[in-house]
Amino acid sequence: MEAPSRTGQSAGTRGAQPIRVCPDFHAAVELIGRRWAGAILWTLEAGPLFFAEIGEAVPGLSDRLLSRRLRELEEAGLVTRTVHGGTPPRVSYELTDMGVELQPAIRELGDWAKRWNVS
Amino acid sequence: MEAPSRTGQSAGTRGAQPIRVCPDFHAAVELIGRRWAGAILWTLEAGPLFFAEIGEAVPGLSDRLLSRRLRELEEAGLVTRTVHGGTPPRVSYELTDMGVELQPAIRELGDWAKRWNVS
Predict the structure, then answer these.
(1) Any bridge partners for residue A95, and if so which?
(2) To the nearest whole percent, how much of chain A has pLDDT over 70?
(3) Section A105-113 average pLDDT
(4) Most A CBs within 10 Å: which of B22, B61, B92, as the mutation test of the A interface?
(5) Structural domains of chain B, with CATH
(6) What CA–CA distance (Å, rounded) separates A19 from B87?
(7) What does the radius of gyration of chain A's CA atoms come to, in whole angstroms?
(8) Which residues of B touch A76 (CB under 8 A)?
(9) How much of chain B is in helix, strand and coil states, percent to nearest 5?
(10) Looking at this predicted complex, what is its ipTM?
(11) Which residue among B1, B43, B113 places its CB closest to the CB of A111?
C-alpha cells in the first residue's frame, strides 16, 4: 500500500502530495466491516465449518443474517460453499485462497484489539 | 490472538475445542468497519490533518458523517482533536498511540486489497 509514512509534520503542511484514500482498501474495509462479516471470517480461520458451527461460534448472529453474509462473502470470492449429501443435506464453508490471505490482517487486528482491550 | 491454526480437518471434525469469535476482535472490526471509519483512519496514517483535508481525502463522505465518525473514533480513543485559534477556528485530528498501533493491521488489509483487486 502506498500510504505515506508518518512525518510528524503538523496538519496542512504535508506538502504538495494530496492524500486520497486507497479505493481497494476502502472496499476491503467496507466488506469485512459489514456487521458480523469479520467475525464469520475469523471463525473460518482454522478450517471449514458447517453452517450451524459458524452460528454457534458467533453468539448473537441470526441464521438469516449469517446466511446473507456468507452469500456476500462467497460472491466476493472469500469463501466457498460445499453441499454434503444426507437428509437434510449439510452445507459447509471454507476460506478460498483469497480468504486465507486475508488472515494476517485479521490476526493483526485481533492482536491490536486484545492489546488495547477494545471490547 | 488465540485463533487456532488451520488444520485441514473437514468441517465438524475439529475436535472438542469449541470455536468462539474473540470479543475484542469483533468489537474492533465493528468499530473500524463502520461506514468510512477505516478510510478516515487510513488518511491519518501520515500525520495530523485538518477536518477539510480528511474530507477531501475521502471522496463521497459528507461533512456530517465525517464529523460523527471522528467523534466516535475520538470516544474510542483512536483519534485526538486539536482546536487551532483563528477566525474561524480550525480543527485538526491526529491518531493517538492506540490509533498508530492499529496501522499495521490497516496496512495489511490494504496490501491484501491491492493484491486481490478488491475495489
Answers:
(1) A79
(2) 87
(3) 94
(4) B22
(5) 23-115 (1.10.10.10)
(6) 25
(7) 18
(8) 118
(9) 50, 10, 40
(10) 0.83
(11) B1
Beta strand segments in chain B, E: 49-50, 79-84, 90-95
Residue of B nearest to A91 (CA): B11
Region label for A102, one of left (φ > 0), alpha (ψ between -120 and 50) or beta (otherwise):
alpha
Determine whether the interchain pair A1/B110 forms a contact, defined as Cβ–Cβ distance below 8 Å. yes
pLDDT in tens, A49-58: 999 999 999 9
Please answer whether residues B48 and A10 qualify as being in contact, where contact means their C-beta atoms are separated by less than 8 angstroms: yes
Q: Which stretches in chain B have pLDDT values below 70?
A: 1-16
CA of B117 vs chain A CAs: smallest distance (Å):
6
What is the pLDDT at residue A4? 46
pLDDT tens-place string over residues A64-83 = 999 999 999 999 999 999 99
Among A90, A85, A87, which residue's Cα sits nearest to residue A53?
A90
Report the 10 Å Cβ neighbour count for B8.
8
Q: Given CA atoms B24, B30, B32, B37 in this order, what sign does their dihedral have?
A: negative
B48-60: burial string, b at 16+ Cβ within 10 Å, e else? bbbbebbbebbee
- Residue B8: list chain A partners with CB under 8 A: 47
All three cell numbers of A45 = 480461520
Task: In whole angstroms, give the CA distance from residue B17 to residue B4.
Answer: 10
Binning pLDDT at 50, 70 and 90, where does residue A15 land?
A: low
